[in-house]
Design a protein that fits this description.
The structure holds two protein chains of two kinds.
Chain A: H1 12-43, H2 52-73, H3 79-95, E1 100-116, E2 122-123, E3 133-139, E4 141-150, E5 161-167, E6 170-182, E7 185-191, E8 197-203, E9 209-213, E10 218-219, E11 222-223, E12 249-254, E13 260-268, E14 279-280, E15 288-303, E16 307-315
Parallel strand pairs in A: 14-15
Antiparallel strand pairs in A: 1-13, 1-15, 2-13, 3-12, 4-9, 4-13, 5-6, 5-12, 6-7, 7-8, 9-10, 10-11, 15-16
Chain B: H1 4-65, E1 69-78, E2 82-83, E3 86-93, E4 100-105, E5 110-115, E6 125-129, E7 132-140, E8 143-151
Antiparallel strand pairs in B: 1-7, 2-3, 3-4, 3-6, 4-5, 7-8
The chains are: A alpha+beta, B alpha+beta.
Chain lengths: ~325, ~150
């Protein structure tokens, strides 16, 4: 076969095809590179520090709650300084991780601590010796309702110890907790304003003291559903559920003679304690009231190069939701 | 012998045309393959960016829901400004009570939609281009009224 053209002028189509294919391969390489980058992006977690903002907020809440407990016990005016200390320590700890934290006290709500902490425990009588009596009138909020008792100090089912929250002016609208012992068990029954009844039993071994944490719904370290769930509907329920929001309530004790031990609670507003049944200051053996901080509002700011978060936290340890 | 030239010319034309056909077929298939993969990769990348952005929106919603009063809540994240050579934008819209995050690449036109929780406070429509995107709360009176996205 004869050549129609010189040999070095042949094969242009192949040459062009080769060039174009080469370009296509380069483009494919770029696309694959992008795919690898996508995989890399997908394996990255959330924005650095974004969940720490919430974790640390909870820590600050707990620390302020501890500072509040201290302030209520010893010196109410120490809370501001304690919160500043918490803020200072938090910021120097977090600065190492490139985070800025600022914690400061904004305001506090006054309340009253009502307690009877006679050593060795005593019957839950008023300072005048009444067995059925009233601790506080016109209460808006209550937190940390704790009863400390012993199995041997509990009443039987015939005369159960009762703690009531009555709507002020409408005493039929009442939340009642009854406590008694039944062989090895502690029985807690709750009657709500709308007629629901729920009951729980917790076995308490030994002769030592144990706590009934009414607002947290815990008896001797075990959860008591009767204090947290409505027996009929199964909806969340807690101390004074059923008292209409915006209304105030009175807190009463019935059959206080039948039980022995200690109790305490913090109520707000400050003037709601009952002047005739409680003594002022911590007189021994009788129920008393002291000024306490009910709620502290703390400003919390958390900042990193990517996260900006600033809120006010309301600290009310042991308050039912 | 007088017919040999004809045969040479014919076979030359045949060779050339067959070669052209094969080569153009190869090029066509190759470029379509690349184009398809590119579209697929863009879709994947938008999906990944969208999921990151949606998780930021939900995290800001958690920030707003955690305390009683919120003053400020915002998250910034840097995303690639282009995906496989094309620009894109992200749109956060109310979508009639079913909040949605939509990511759109311009060329080729690829759209990815990511659903958000219906209780996330989003009203109207906000959008941002690729790059550093801030997700933040518009706060009024201590509550987070609306979560928006914007470029910073």
């Amino acid at each position: 076969m004869a050549d129609l053209r010189p040999r070095d002028e042949r094969g242009q189509i192949l040459l062009i095809a080769a060039f174009t294919l080469a370009v296509i391969f380069v483009a494919l390489a770029l696309v694959i590179n992008s795919a690898i980058f996508t995989e890399n992006l997908a394996s990255q977690g959330e924005v650095a520090g974004s969940s720490e903002a919430l974790t640390y907020q909870d820590q600050v809440r707990q620390s302020v709650a501890e500072a509040m407990a201290y302030a209520n016990r010893y010196d109410e005016s120490s809370l501001g300084a304690s919160v500043d200390t918490i803020g200072g320590q938090s910021s120097s700890q977090q600065a190492r991780g490139g985070r800025v934290i600022d914690v400061s006290l904004v305001s506090t709500t006054d309340g009253t601590r009502i307690a009877d902490n006679a050593s060795g425990g005593s019957a839950f009588r008023s300072s005048g010796g009444l067995s059925d009596w009233n601790l506080a009138d016109g209460v808006e909020r209550t937190r940390n309702v704790v009863v400390t008792t012993r199995h041997s100090d509990l009443p039987t089912s015939g005369t159960p110890f009762r703690l009531r929250a009555n709507e002020t002016g409408t005493p039929t609208n009442v939340w009642t907790m009854s406590v008694w012992e039944d062989s090895d068990d502690v029985v807690v029954r709750v009657n709500t304003a709308d007629g629901d009844v729920s009951e729980c039993r917790v076995a308490v071994a030994g002769a030592g003291t144990f706590q009934i944490d009414v607002t947290d719904g815990v008896i001797a370290g075990e959860r008591c559903h009767a204090l947290t769930r409505d027996g009929t509907a199964g909806t969340p329920m807690w101390f004074a559920t059923g008292i209409p929001s915006g209304s105030t309530y009175d807190i009463e004790i019935a059959n206080g003679d039948a039980i022995g031990g200690n109790y305490s609670m913090v109520v707000s507003p400050r003037g709601s304690w009952n002047a005739t049944t409680l003594t002022t200051g911590s007189a021994t053996g009788t129920p008393y009231r002291t000024d306490a901080i009910y709620e502290a509002t703390v400003d919390y700011a958390f900042r990193t190069s990517q996260v900006t978060y600033e809120t006010e936290i309301e600290v009310t340890p042991g308050e039912a939701p | 012998m007088t017919e040999r030239g004809t045969s040479t010319a014919l076979s030359y034309v045949l060779t050339l045309s067959i070669a052209t056909l094969l080569v153009s077929g190869l090029l066509f298939a190759g470029s379509t393959f690349v184009e398809d993969s590119r579209e697929q990769v863009i879709r994947q990348e938008l999906q990944v960016i969208g999921e990151h952005l949606a998780s930021n929106v939900e995290q800001v919603d958690r920030y707003a829901g955690a305390p009683e009063t919120v003053h400020e809540a915002s998250l910034e994240q840097t995303f690639p400004s282009r995906v496989t050579g094309t620009t894109y934008d992200a749109i956060l819209r109310e979508n009639g009570g079913d909040p949605t995050l939509t990511l759109r690449a311009t060329d080729p036109a690829v759209t990815v939609e990511i659903g958000l929780g219906s209780d996330v406070p989003i009203t109207g429509e906000t959008f941002a281009d690729g790059g550093t995107i801030a997700t933040s709360c518009e706060v009024s009176g201590g509550t987070c009224d609306r979560i928006v996205i914007e470029n910073v």
